[in-house]
């Protein structure tokens, strides 16, 4: 049995510092997991320049460098494995065991290698696999769906990565759905999710027997910044957060309400939640926006669980 770790983080358009401790985000025990899938939102500010202009691969490279350092920190490395890590950049999608990858084999089987990285504006996905497992991965593919401005630009949408591990097809959907805290904005998020399910597609392969749609895969994980809020008055929400009454808050969580009413994610299951709402903190603090740290005239943002994995 293999273990997969999936992480998602909206970084608010902030480029990571060189000494960012990624170990705080994941279990780096050497025998912990075999595959790591990292999903980020807003790795660049969602400005018109970034939405319409070329992608900033330097930011992706920086995240990959930090991820690689954290995953392989505890592994004793040879000069050859050090050379491998120097190569970790933004990788194109390619089949495992291609001629190029065969030339690179021979590293520590415990070492993690980047199989694929893909950016769409602010959404960034990076998949890392143990060296000893790479030969069992086939049919790696990526599909991007823009749901943002005009219903097609990449400031909102998804980056989906799929591959086969032995005979099991795995699909990882990293999304950033429509924002907004007004009544009815949850409908826009439902529509984005439906668009992602409808428009994400992959090649059927030479034998035409590979999964084409998200729901065709054996195992699917949907994660990211889904942006669903809590349907309570802000003052009530903050009071319940202060009291850590998570179950009461979750009863009014928009995502759970929409799923219960059959409006979205029919048949999906969300993991257990036993932690504070993830939205929205002041940078480098544990204080929510609108708290005592706020500035006069600052937009108030009620706490909510925007980030989810299903």
Explain this structure.
It is globular and about 55 Å long. The two termini are 20 Å apart. It is built from 8 helices and 9 strands. The strands form 2 sheets. It has a 5-stranded mixed beta sheet. It has a 4-stranded mixed beta sheet with strand order 1-2-4-3, with helices on one face. It has helices at residues 48-52, 57-72, 79-86, 99-103, 185-199, 234-242, 246-250, 254-260; strands at 4-10, 35-41, 112-120, 123-130, 137-146, 157-165, 168-176, 219-225, 307-309. It has 310 residues and is an alpha+beta fold. Helix content is 23%, strand content 22%.
SSE arrangement:
Elements: E1 4-10, E2 35-41, H1 48-52, H2 57-72, H3 79-86, H4 99-103, E3 112-120, E4 123-130, E5 137-146, E6 157-165, E7 168-176, H5 185-199, E8 219-225, H6 234-242, H7 246-250, H8 254-260, E9 307-309
Quick summary of this structure?
The protein is an alpha+beta fold and 310 residues long. The chain contains eight helices and nine strands.
């Amino acid at each position: 049995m293999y273990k997969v770790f999936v992480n998602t983080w909206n970084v608010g358009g902030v480029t990571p510092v060189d000494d960012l401790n990624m170990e705080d985000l994941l279990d780096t025990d050497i025998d912990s997991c075999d595959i790591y899938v990292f999903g980020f939102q807003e790795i660049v500010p969602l400005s018109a320049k970034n939405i319409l202009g070329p992608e900033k691969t330097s930011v992706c490279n920086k995240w990959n460098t930090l991820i690689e350092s954290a995953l392989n920190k505890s592994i004793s490395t040879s000069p050859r494995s050090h050379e491998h890590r120097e190569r970790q950049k933004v990788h194109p999608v390619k089949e495992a065991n291609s001629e190029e990858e065969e030339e690179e084999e021979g590293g520590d089987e415990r070492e993690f290698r980047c199989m694929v990285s893909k950016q769409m504006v602010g959404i960034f996905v990076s998949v890392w696999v143990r060296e000893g497992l790479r030969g069992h991965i086939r049919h790696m593919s990526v599909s991007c769906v823009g749901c943002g401005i005009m219903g097609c630009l990449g400031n909102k949408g998804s980056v989906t990565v799929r591959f086969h591990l032995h005979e099991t097809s795995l699909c990882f959907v990293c999304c950033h759905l429509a924002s907004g805290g007004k009544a009815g904005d949850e409908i826009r998020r439902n529509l984005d999710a439906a668009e992602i399910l409808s428009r994400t597609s992959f090649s059927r392969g030479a034998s035409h027997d590979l999964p084409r749609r998200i729901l065709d895969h054996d195992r699917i994980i949907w994660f990211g910044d889904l942006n669903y809020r809590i349907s309570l008055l802000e003052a009530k929400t903050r009071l319940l957060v202060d009291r850590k009454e998570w179950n009461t808050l979750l009863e009014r969580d928009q995502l759970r309400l929409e799923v219960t009413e059959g409006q979205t994610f029919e048949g999906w299951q969300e993991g257990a939640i036993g932690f504070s709402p993830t939205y929205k903190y002041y940078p480098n603090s544990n204080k929510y926006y609108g708290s005592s740290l706020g500035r006069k005239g600052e937009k108030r943002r009620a706490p909510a669980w925007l980030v989810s994995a299903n």
